[in-house]
Amino acid sequence: xxxxxxxxxxxxxxxxxxxxxxxxxxxxxxxxxxxxxxxxxxxxxxxxxxxxxxxxxxxxxxxxxxxxxxxxxxxxxxxxxxxxxxxxxxxxxxxxxxxxxxxxxxxxxxxxxxxxxxxxxxxxxxxxxxxxxxxxxxxxxxxxxxxxxxxxxxxxxxxxxxxxxxxxxxxxxxxxxxxxxxxxxxxxxxxxxxxxxxxxxxxxxxxxxxxxxxxxxxxxxxxxxxxxxxxxxxxxxxxxxxxxxxxxxxxxxxxxxxxxxxxxxxxxxxxxxxxxxxxxx
Length: 281
Fold this sequence. Notes:
Layout: H1 29-42, E1 50-54, E2 69-72, H2 78-88, E3 93-99, H3 100-104, H4 108-117, E4 122-127, H5 162-169, E5 173-178, H6 182-194, E6 199-204, H7 217-220, E7 222-223, H8 232-240, E8 246-252, H9 272-278
Parallel strand pairs: 1-2, 1-3, 3-4, 4-6, 5-6, 7-8
Antiparallel strand pairs: 5-8
């Protein structure tokens, strides 16, 4: 931002754009957006040095709602975009925003390999266990017996377990927050951004339009009651016993982030005639 004085302090409002969110009233994503803005302010990040990347879905509208640089990519492709950006510009803070459909269905393979590669970025997935933008289809994290007009009797398919998959795939920081716990979620995002490597934050974010029963999450979510572990086996044990509504920091690894050397920027412009000449037989 131009014209900043030495004593200037960023506040959450400085990360909020003039674009008004069009989420449904009561959507949990409002809380996640507020937590992201608060986390940026707590870290005093210059919006010009932050990039928010997303795919497609209700949650993926977030880049437009911030004053940071943003990239609204293709469905499920936010992570490879963000990884390429971070490797090319390691000086930037990169945060990826997504949802359970975008991140764990069409983007599921990218999720596995982003955990494995361990590039230094933060991935916040807003999970409401339903495809909200396309009117209520079951998502990968929907329980097998969730009955709806679009899937009478439920899918009968086991729900995807994001935290366990992230651990097994090599994520360096694994946590779960709740959009209704603004302070707790803000703290997790701050910790995720500060921690080197791939940080995954599973944010429970109710969709009360298509899943009104998720209003009860505010009464059902609960703290793990234990601090994070750096032991893989211990984290596996905890996640095996997890009921899906436990919040807090689960696992903190110490793997070094993947960061290949970046060549200095040079002027690579070439006259078109030179390129044509190279293809002459």
